[in-house]
């Protein structure tokens, strides 16, 4: 199994010199209004485009794994406390997956305003001890106190409005998350190195997650904002 991981941090202005501690007066002036944009790409047995690695036979090999032949595009789970034949393995053969999140924004807000006291977003009892005593500063769990709390925000850029055309099954604007999964064969193998075996040539499961727009990915659209507060 081979995998790759790329994380991009945007919106940060870092000097070329070594990191230095900031004095308290400088930190107190930081508002983090620009926030951070995160991009994540993760692949197992794939390249950056979600294609199965050619170096592993393009995930189309068959037979036991060797240095140069066989189905080397696989990942496995070993079942604990199951020692039949030296060990039991659930082996995903001819398998690969990719995950891509182009942009996830992280920011802060010094106060939540009326969003905080909306009962859609919070339950005041979550800020209380079991005996009903409020845990917030000043011992007040009133709406005004909740409104004044700072919060960490997670949000996706709005981007284009998604659309779907049933003729041909073509969609556009679904660009928040792309996920693809292919499981060519799945079987049980036995032995200390069962993850390399191909004694069970049959399969009890196969799966494919993709869509009409991309053979390797299924796209998802998220909008809106999540507030993380109460810390």
Question: Can you walk through the features of this model?
Answer:
By secondary structure, this protein is mainly β. The chain has one domain (3-9, 32-110, 150-229). Helices cover 4% and strands 34% of the residues. The strands form 2 sheets. Strands 1, 2, 3, 4, 5, 8, 9, 10 and 11 form a 9-stranded antiparallel beta sheet that branches. The chain has a two-stranded antiparallel sheet with strand order 6-7. Strand 6 (163-165) and strand 7 form a beta hairpin. It is elongated and about 65 Å long.
Instruction: Show unreliable segments.
Output: 7-18
Termini gap: 39 Å
Anisotropy-based shape:
elongated
How many strands, which pairing sense, and closed or not: the largest β-sheet? 9 strands, antiparallel
Radius of gyration: 25 Å
Percentage of residues in DSSP E strands: 25-35%
* Tally of individual domains: 1
Structural class: mainly beta
Mean pLDDT: 81
Please count the helical segments: 2
Helix content: under 10%
The H-and-E topology, N to C, reads as EHEEEHEEEEEEE
Number of strands: 11
Itemize the secondary structure elements and their pairings:
Layout: E1 3-10, H1 24-27, E2 36-44, E3 75-78, E4 88-109, H2 143-147, E5 151-155, E6 163-165, E7 170-172, E8 177-190, E9 207-209, E10 218-220, E11 225-229
Antiparallel strand pairs: 1-2, 2-4, 3-4, 4-5, 4-8, 5-11, 6-7, 8-9, 8-10
